[in-house]
Amino acid sequence: MREARACTPQDxxxxxxxxxxxxxxxxxxxxxxxxxxxSMGLETHRTALISGIGCSSRIPAYTSTYGxxxxxxxxxxxxxxxxxxxxxLTVVAFGGDGDGFSIGGNxxxxxxxxxxxxxxxxxxxxxxGMTKGQASPTTEPDWCESKLxxxxxGVTPIQPVPLSIACxxxxxxxxxxxxxxxxxxxxxxxIRHPGFSVVQVLSPCVTFRPEQKDWxxxxxxxxxxxxDNPMLAMxxxxxxxxxxxxxxxxGNRPPFAPQAEATASVEQLEAExxx
Length: 275
Hints:
This protein is an alpha/beta fold. It has nine helices and eight strands. The protein has a single domain (9-272), classed as Thiamin diphosphate (ThDP)-binding fold, Pyr/PP domains (Rossmann fold, 3-Layer(aba) Sandwich). It has an eight-stranded mixed beta sheet with strand order 2-1-3-4-6-5-8-7, with helices on both faces. Strand 7 (220-221), helix 8 and strand 8 (244-250) form a beta-alpha-beta unit. Helix 1 (26-40) crosses helix 6 (180-192).
């Protein structure tokens, strides 16, 4: 990761206007991302944003860095491959609770344990907003507003912070879209911390979950120093009510490093597969 001249958040915004619903928390996340990049002075041609499918995954189009809008749940696979092939790049992946923990859950688990040096920002609104309001993996079991689950999904929701710690992420934090400056600081810390970093952002969906406007009064400082021991971090995360914001875990596991570069030429490799 290289740092360049002083920049402003505007330097990282594209000419594409966001199409999120008015009041969507993802607007604040986009603002936080550009502020974070500007504070670090990142070079746009050495920065890549990778996303899957969903409202949150539109972010690469709204920035002026390199970007890749992938398929549902596969952002981390693409981001990991890119970082390993181009370790000189700053790679940040984006997704939502559905994209990251449902169809992308398998990739998330292995990204945590593999510990490639990249950052994953998860915009969690506990609902599938793009597909009109179905329950997601983080939806509470008694939420009854979806026509598909009129009695509520009835299953225990995933808890992103404890899950990230248990699976081996090397940096785990939570923010709230109502405080974009804090999110920006968390993203900076996540990018600078070696290994796989997870930043869960509570990002209300005011269209399908209007009651989430009350999150503004529910969030509170996590209140503890980041743990460097996963067992201590897990214990503290499980005691949290899901609305504590801050850094839960900052581990010291070395990032996954690829094998030494191959010395064989293209011609030699092709000859091995020749009939």
